[in-house]
Amino acid sequence: MGLYKRLTISQKQIVWAWGLLALPILFYVVVRFYPTANAIALSFQEWNLLGSRSWIGFENYTKLFSDPVFWKVFANTFIYLLLGTPTSLVVAFLIAYHLDKLRFMHGTIRALYFLPFMTTAVAMAWVWRWFYQPVPIGVFNNFLATLGIAQIPFLNSTTYALPSVLAPAIWAGLGFQVIIFMAGLRAIPQTYYEAARIDGITTWETLTEITLPLLKPTIVFLVVFSSIGFLRIFDQVFNMTTNDPGGPLNSTKPLVLMIYDTAFNSFDMGYAAAQTVVLFSVLLVVSLVQLRIMRDN
Amino acid sequence: MKKIKKWMLGATTAACAMVGAGSALAVEIEYWQYFFEPRVKAMETLIENFEKANPDITVKMTHFPYADYRTKVAAAIPAGQGPDVVQLFYGWLNDYVNAQLIQPLPSDVFPPAEIEKEFFPMVQAMKRGDKYMALPTAVRSLALFYNKRLFDKAGIEGPPKTLDELVEIAKKLTKTDGAGNLSQVGITTGMNAQDHHWFREVLVRQFGGDPYQNNYQKVNYNSDAGLAALKFYSDLEFKHKVTAAGFMDETQAAFKAGRAGMHIDGSFRIGALNKVRRLKWGVAELPAAKDGTQSNYSSYWVNGITSKATGEKYDAAVKFMKYVTSDEAMQVWLDTVGELPAKPSAAMTEANSNNEVYGPFIRGLSYAKTTIFANESGQRQAMMDMVARMRLKGQSAEESLGIAAEQEQKILDEYYN
After folding, report:
1. Chain centre to alpha carbon of residue A165
2. How far is CA B333 from the centre of its chain?
3. Is residue B248 within 8 angstroms of chain A, CB to CB?
4. Cβ distance of B377 and A137 shorter than 8 Å
5. Is B78 within 8 Å of A49 when comparing Cβ atoms?
């Protein structure tokens, strides 16, 4: 007590600041940093959740890198990313760009686009799963059948399954991206557009020379944000393929589903932790690279 | 004031005495199982009966949703916080025994010779060394469900007795729409459901093979018998076209909706089918092979005593185990849950084995086998991929069977070595 009294006011302020900051830091250490460190340690161990952990060096990693399923899953994860991020961004921008100019029923339409984002991924995945079913229950295939067109095996095909699973995931995230894009568009000062009109610049040039460059911070944010989302895709795949998780023949399995399966079906916790560390590294690298590229331009 | 003080003192002493007496007399043991309403109800009845017979023991039941159950148990028991008596799937036992989380049942109360005489033979998978680690109250087996209305409409007299009849009847029950798309299947198909058991333990054996060797540590279906079994199974979809994978999304859904003539499933499906109105269904034993060979697959949940139970709790747990594996408990379980008694003495009573619904399942138990899985979902995946490769990549049965055997052997090797 006496010690505290002898401090100057600014020293006391520092003590209080640290005291208050200690809480979130402590929280982060307990719920974030400690489990992360623990998972990294676990990736060098063998553990089935029941017995004791034993150190096995890099065995989990060598097993992982020599596992053909892992490379298939790794490729799938990047297909989700490379198909999902550009598609969702382009579609979201087109919607936002035109919605921004629209005055009639603007709020209602915006709300309709935002609605899927608020829906639970699980419920949505199941509804889409039923849409995709073959005749007699699938909506899409019933429609095709009435037109006399052959059925499309949406989920029961190694080529169509991944895009079919990805579509609702893109649709679900669209509302959020549209809102962010619109906020970005509104933040561009109108004076630029007025100047452009006076100079007689075409709409296309206005878009490429003014709108897109000034939207860069928004685009960077959305690219990083949606990339992380697609790299971590799980809910849609898990719920749409419960009959053959990540199937058929691993064609839709993303890394997170493989981790889940290894941990909670095979109870091979060390191996699952090694996969988690790989996912963590991938997310880190992809995010850093994207931030760097987008900043340099 | 003095009065109040005196009264308080008296009350406190009395309370202390009661608490003390309570702890000296009563033992409380904890029991865990997953949540499935009839199972919980059945266990409540059993606990009530048990407590009536043993007034000094109370049993506290805790249940969890099925999806969390395995993880919850696996996290709690090693931490010494779980139950004294726990319900485990038979396939998990190995891991619990290896980690010394389950105590063997005492031989004086559960003599192995007696167990082998009294229980159905597949229960022997629960023996380690010369002791039993755990015992089931109820077991499950497979049977053929069939839709009586569709059978009548197609003019079929009764369920198939042999595999050849199965194919013929399935053909009669299959319907396609104008575009050639299936609108009703003769029999459901899907290795993800119960078919992987039907293939392993039934079809492979019926075609003269032995699916595994060395106590289920070595895959042995990559043989002529295995190939014949796979051909029979895949022909249903690819040659006879009496079924399609993923028809109506789930096999049991197709059967419930009256869009499937036949459906192979476990006894645990009975309750759900009873709830479907307007569905008239019957049950028959799985069809026999040409030479009359019958086989079946049985799985079960077992009760075991965890390493947490010591002293008087251990004694109470043993008593409780004795009761839940008694004939009386098995009949309660059958009546409430619809799962089959684990002892012939309780199962093969005249009323039970002549029962229209339970009968075929119970008769199947006498020749049922239990696969010892290292990783059931992984081993099931091998079966699913085997048929998927034929469907989606046009792979031959020989080649696909070989790959599946390799894939499954790898899982077994990783587990046992």
Report:
1. 14
2. 14
3. yes
4. no
5. yes
Q: Quick check: A163 contacting B, CB < 8 Å?
A: no
In contact, A173 and A117? CB cutoff 8 Å: yes
Contact across the interface for B75 and A49, Cβ inside 8 Å: yes
Q: How far apart are CA B356 and CA B376, in angstroms?
A: 31
Q: Given an 8 Å threshold on Cβ–Cβ distance, is B377 in contact with A134?
A: no
pLDDT tens, per residue, chain A with 297 residues: 578 888 888 999 999 999 999 989 999 999 999 999 999 999 999 998 888 889 999 999 999 999 999 999 999 999 999 999 999 999 999 999 999 888 888 888 888 888 888 889 899 999 999 999 998 889 999 999 888 888 899 999 999 999 999 999 999 999 999 999 999 999 999 999 999 989 888 889 989 889 999 998 899 889 989 999 999 999 999 999 999 999 899 999 999 999 999 998 888 999 999 999 999 999 999 888 888 877 755
The answer to whether the CB atoms of A249 and B385 lie below 8 A apart is: yes
| Alpha carbon distances (Å) from B253 to B171, B259, B269 | 20, 9, 11
Considering CB atoms only, which of B182, B244, B388 is closest to A247?
B388
In sequence order, the 6+-apart residues with CB closer than 8 A to the CB of B299 are B89, B90, B91, B139, B140, B197, B266, B370
**AA letter at A182:** M
List of residues 6+ apart from B210 with CB closer than 8 A: B204, B220, B225
Distance of alpha carbon B256 from alpha carbon B154, whole angstroms: 18
CB contact under 8 A, A135 and B181: yes
Closest CA of chain B from A266, distance in Å = 6
Q: A277 CA to chain B: closest CA distance, Å?
A: 22
A116 Cβ under 8 Å from any chain B Cβ = no
Which of B:167-206 have CB within 8 Å of A?
A: 177, 179, 181-183, 190, 192
CB pairs under 8 A between A and B: 85
Q: Given an 8 Å threshold on Cβ–Cβ distance, is A50 in contact with B181?
A: no
Residues of B in contact with A130 (CB under 8 A): 249
Contact by Cβ (8 Å): A28, A36: no
Three-state DSSP class for A195?
helix
Extract the tokens encoding B177: 């729409």
With beta carbons under 8 A apart, name residues in chain B contacting A51: 78, 95, 98-99
Phi, psi of A136, deg, nearest 5:
-95, 5
Number of neighbours of residue A146 by Cβ within 10 angstroms: 10
Residue with tokens 């020749």: B367
3-state SS, one letter per residue, for B251-311: HHHHHHCCCEEEEEEEHHHHHHHHCCCCCCEEEECCCECCCCCCCEEEEEEEEEEECCCCH
Q: Which of these, B153, B97, B91, lies nearest to B129 by C-alpha position? A: B97
Cis status of the peptide bond prior to A254, with omega within 30 of 0: no
Q: Which two tokens stand for residue A247?
A: 């199937």
Residues of A in contact with B95 (CB under 8 A): 48, 50-51, 267
Is the Cα dihedral A218, A219, A222, A228 positive or negative?
negative
What is the largest distance, in Å, between two alpha-carbon atoms of chain B?
97
Q: What is the DSSP letter of A135?
A: T
The B residues from 351 to 390 touching A (CB cutoff 8 Å) are: 375, 377-378, 381, 384-385, 388-389
Strands, DSSP E only, in A115-197?
Answer: none
